[in-house]
Amino acid sequence: MSAPLFTTNDADVTQLEGVYIKETLPPGTVQEVSLNTVGVFGPTLKGPTGVPVLITSEQRFIDVFGGGYLNGTNINKVWTSILNKGFSSLYVARVFAPAAVKASFTLESAAGGAGTQVLRIDASNVGSWGNSLKWKVSAATDAVANHFDLSIKDTLTGKVWLYKNVDIVGGDNTATLVGTDDARPVDLVKLAATRPNNSSAGVDGADTDGFTSLGQVVAGYVSVVGSDGTVADADYFGAGKGLNLLDTLKGVAIVYPAEYTSANLKAAMKTSAAASSDRMFIMGATDHTTAVATAVTDVATYRSDRIVYAYNHVYTIDPVTGTEVLVRPESWMAAVMANTDVDIHVGEHDTKRFLAGITRIYQPSLTRADYVTLRAAGISALEIDLGDPVFVSGVTSDLTPGKTEIARRRMADFLQLSAAYALRFHVKKKNTEARRTAIAATLKGWLSGLQFQGRVVEDYLIDMDILNSPTDRANGIQRILMRVQLVPHMLSVVLTTEIGTGVTITTN
Q1: In the predicted model, what is the mean pLDDT of residues 380-398?
Q2: Strands 358-361 and 314-318
Q3: Nearest Cα to Cα of residue 85 among 342, 383, 353
Q4: 483 exposure class (CB count in 10 Å sphere: 0-12, 13-18, 19+)
Q5: d(CA 433, CA 436)
Q6: Where exactly are the structural domains of the chain?
Q7: Torsion angle, CA of 293/295/299/300, rounded to 10 degrees?
Q8: In the prediction, which pLDDT does 241 show?
Q9: What is the DSSP string of 423-439?
Q10: pLDDT given for residue 2 in this prediction
Q11: CA proximity to 83, closest of 378, 315, 365, 351
Q12: pLDDT for position 20
């Protein structure tokens, strides 16, 4: 054997003389999980239904879910809830009415409504926004007689899409041209292998540029007017709906409803929180006029260390109208949690920059006694501190000692989920002393690194033996004890003073 043999099978070594190389994996590392991704659900101007969409920029949100306004009315509650906040990424689940309808228009092979129905243009998703889309058919860019170009104009944004060389005669390339991106404006449905008639200005409802609106009523043609329907309380939760599209979605760590609440929704959120092991749910009072005493009574129904009950509505600037709008506090709590490490208290001074979009709070005259009452009830309320808004307390709705702090819950999730991810790679491996030592080294190295950085861990213990019995190991069970003392927060700082002319100062 002239070259070394690479092998992982020790039986090869005894078969023939030579040099063998058995490469083993280096000690594993812990990949820390991120608990900063937000999931928000609520009505939007447009967008896919029944599936959450990952949004990573403001423009992407507008492309997929639209801006805030339609015909002067703000119907995009998610848009309102993310105004003036810095979310690096979030999942959006659209809440919509089952009665909502897509706008559409059916093109024909001849003018005047006397031709064959050949192509239906559907708005990509339901809602009255689809009525703002216009279409125009023109000669194909490639000059093939049976091909045509289709222009789609969004009159809300002024954006125009041009689908060149559409072919529904020799085949059907409509799906390829339009694609499946969540921001696509329309879907095209071939009805017959015949080219549609070219659009003409002022003919069959077309405007002076030759564009006709989806949903527009034109004699002799089939069209459907897009509509939103009326969103009901039950549309926010349940199988395939807002809350339940996000409460188990992998990667989401913070869930809140956009500018809406109800007793039924909060009950559903409590159920989701009880079933969850990796995320937190933010809810709040009925509306901005809810008194402290009423909120205290309300929160008692929703006890969980995975529930944050935020209080005190605030104002922010609507960039479209340039005026103040009143918004709920849940989204501001989500913004703080999304932009801070798990061991950061949501009310510390440095979090104020994530609330800079708040112009004023609705109840600026809450007293110390009010905040004491709110905290004792498990409510995190906003106040103005040195001119800036901040959450006074960072508490969950759970009153159990040791489970009251938001940071405690988030730090525990971070440690458990990160460790669990690393341990996955040891499942079904041989339970040897060497492997147990390697596992312990991996966890200790990670925890000591966090301790050195001053993050999350104050002290820790990893024990691979204390919880195990020979029977456990014989049955394929390896238990690991990981005890962690978390980094505490200075919730109260007490400066004791003695000041006066009669004070004696001595030095050693």
Answers
A1: 97
A2: antiparallel
A3: 353
A4: exposed
A5: 5
A6: 38-97+233-406, 104-224, 428-508
A7: 20
A8: 97
A9: HGGGTTS---HHHHHHH
A10: 62
A11: 315
A12: 85
Q: How many residues does the chain have?
A: 508
Render pLDDT for 337-368 as a digit per residue (tens, 0 to 9): 999 999 999 999 999 999 999 999 999 999 99
State the chain's mean pLDDT as an integer.
Answer: 95
Q: Give the Cα separation of 147 and 167 in Å (integer).
A: 5
Q: Which of 328, 226, 339 is nearest to 282 (CA)?
A: 328
Q: Which of 260, 261, 236 is nearest to 94 (CA)?
A: 236
Domain topology for 38-97+233-406: Rossmann fold (3.40.50)
- Give, in order, the Cα–Cα distances in Å from 283 to each of 60, 274, 415, 466: 26, 15, 25, 41
Quick one: angle between helices 406-423 and 433-453, nearest 10? 150
pLDDT at 1 over 90: no
**Using 50, 70 and 90 to split pLDDT, how confident is the model at 24?**
confident
C-alpha torsion angle, residues 448, 345, 398, 253 (rounded to 10): -70
Q: Write the DSSP symbol of residue 34.
A: P
Asked if 406 and 396 count as a contact pair (C-beta separation under 8 A), the reply is: yes
pLDDT reading at 204 higher than 90: yes
Show Cβ contacts of residue 443 under 8 Å, excluding neighbours closer than 6 positions.
30, 419, 422, 462, 480, 482
pTM: 0.92
Alpha helices in 378-469 (DSSP H): 406-423, 433-453
Contact criterion met (CB below 8 Å) for 229 and 100: yes
Residues 6+ apart with CB under 8 A from 91: 37, 38, 39, 40, 52, 53, 54, 55, 246, 249, 251, 252
Residue 23 confidence class, pLDDT cut points 50, 70, 90: confident
Q: pLDDT tens digit string along 214-231?
A: 999 999 999 999 999 999
Angle at 89 between CA 184 and CA 187, to 5 degrees: 10
Sign of the four-CA dihedral 42, 48, 52, 56: negative
Q: Give pLDDT, residue 8.
A: 83
CATH number of 104-224: 2.60.40.4290
Report the half-sphere exposure of 267 (CA within 13 A, side-chain side).
6
* 38-97+233-406 against 104-224: fold identical: no
Q: C-alpha 16: how far from its chain's center?
A: 59
How far is Cα 274 from Cα 307, in angstroms, rounded to an integer? 9
